[in-house]
Amino acid sequence: MSFQNMGLSRTEVISAMLSIDNTEENNYKSEGPHVKNVSGPKRVYGGYVVAQAYKAVKEYARKIKDENPIFSMHYNFLSSGMYVE
């Protein structure tokens, strides 16, 4: 089933995918929809994780009133990501 069939626009889908919640002082989690079966069942695309990490850092910086921009992120994709429902 596509997201359009669910009545969601692309903007709503992307916004939901990148949504994060501050669960504790320095912890964030995502409940957004994950695109299943892109590379296999229960897999998550690495770009989601990188985008969510960027958003979490920006949110934390805003919370502690740090005005410095994020100018570099380094990451390596070592294996498939998995999500837990």
TrEMBL record:
This is Acyl-CoA thioesterase-like N-terminal HotDog domain-containing protein. Residues 43-80 form the Acyl-CoA thioesterase-like N-terminal HotDog domain. Coiled coil: none annotated.
